[in-house]
Write a structure and sequence with these properties.
single chain, 344 residues, alpha/beta, Rossmann fold, two-stranded antiparallel ribbon, 40% helix
């Protein structure tokens, strides 16, 4: 569907995020084999699954889309099934259950733990660093696209424009350390078995129900103070991130290709808040000053390979502002983008 000026309902939001681009339709038509999505019930998984299914249908291709998760929310599983997506309930910490999954040619790895990881460090490491070893050995004959995080990078000077793929890593805190472990384990087994893959360092995806823009907009709208110590961030529309990720199967190689995925702008949190303030006719309240460093990624390589995101920063700001004004539903999961200690 055409990109709307405003989004009024969750139904329209889901429609926007699951409408495939012509490039995605062509890419999945040319990608041999079925698609299995591990972690299909998370923040991005459900829309990615539906996006893939719609692209395959529009290509008139004979391919299965299979969503795998614990599915603790039965309604989510039912919704995916109604969209024509096969579902399998699986405890991904159980190696036996992983071994029972069907062999497929394409695996989208979306498993990870971030929020709530403080105080649950052992579980965080098990999910982020143990499961990749089991999965990569199970699907050693597949193409695997693995979601990772820009948090594996250190804080870098804002003026440099963000870390590039082969800049030194420097994860801050146990979540980011476990995310780097996920990448290293994945790379090791891909090298061992000559498994083609792509590692996506995402930083940060948003839709209208969660994300950096929503966090800032809500604070401006409700008169809460915005702390500026992490004064800059990157964002990308979730629909664009999913579209680009699905097109990464065509880029899979051994050792895995490393790819930053985010928007082209270094977003100033102060200026973002002031923009929302103008849209809400409210003056933002600030505390502190911007640091010279921030967690930032340079996604120039992904733009060369996959093109630029279709949804612009200005479009996202307008959508989020309207969503806040109409009290649209949210996931009530702050991103904690402002943290500089790595504790989530």
């Amino acid at each position: 569907m055409p990109i709307p000026k405003l989004i009024e309902t969750t139904v329209i939001l889901e429609e926007v995020m699951t409408t495939p681009s012509p490039a995605l339709i062509e890419a999945l038509a040319q990608t041999p084999g079925d698609l299995l999505i591990l972690g299909a019930s998370g923040k991005m998984g459900p829309t990615l699954a539906r996006l893939a299914k719609r692209a395959i249908d529009e290509a008139d291709a004979d391919k299965r889309v299979i969503g795998v998760a614990r599915f603790s929310n039965p309604a989510m599983r039912e919704a995916l099934q109604q969209a024509g997506i096969e579902t399998i309930a699986c405890d991904l910490l159980n190696p036996h259950e992983i071994q029972q999954l069907p062999e497929v040619e394409n695996v989208m790895y979306m498993i990870g733990m971030k929020f709530g990881s403080t105080g649950r460090e052992a579980e965080t490491w098990a999910i982020n660093a143990y499961i990749p070893a089991i999965v990569t050995q199970k699907f050693k004959k597949s193409r695997i696209v693995l979601f990772s995080s820009g948090n594996v990078y250190p804080l870098t000077p804002v003026k440099f424009g963000g870390s590039k793929e082969y800049d030194p890593t420097g994860p801050i805190g146990e979540y980011a350390q476990s995310a780097l472990a996920r990448e290293r384990i994945f790379e090791y087994f891909c090298r061992q078995h000559q498994t083609p893959g792509v590692t996506i360092r995402l930083n940060y995806a948003i839709d209208l129900r969660y994300g950096v823009l929503l966090d800032v907009a809500q604070k401006v709208f409700s008169g809460q103070t915005i702390h500026l110590s992490m004064g800059h961030a990157n964002v990308i529309w979730q629909g664009d991130a999913n579209d680009m990720a699905l097109r990464c199967f065509a880029l899979a190689q051994t050792p895995p290709l490393m790819l930053n995925m985010t928007g082209p702008e270094t977003v100033s949190i102060r200026r973002l808040a002031e923009r929302f303030g103008a849209l809400f006719d409210k003056a933002p309240m600030f505390a502190g000053e911007e640091s010279e460093t921030a967690l930032l990624s340079n996604a120039g390589e992904s733009f060369q390979l996959l093109g630029y995101p279709a949804v612009t920063l200005e479009q996202m700001i307008g959508w989020v502002a309207h969503w806040v004004k109409i009290s649209g539903p949210t996931l009530a999961k702050p991103t904690h983008f402002e943290t500089r200690t790595g504790k989530f």
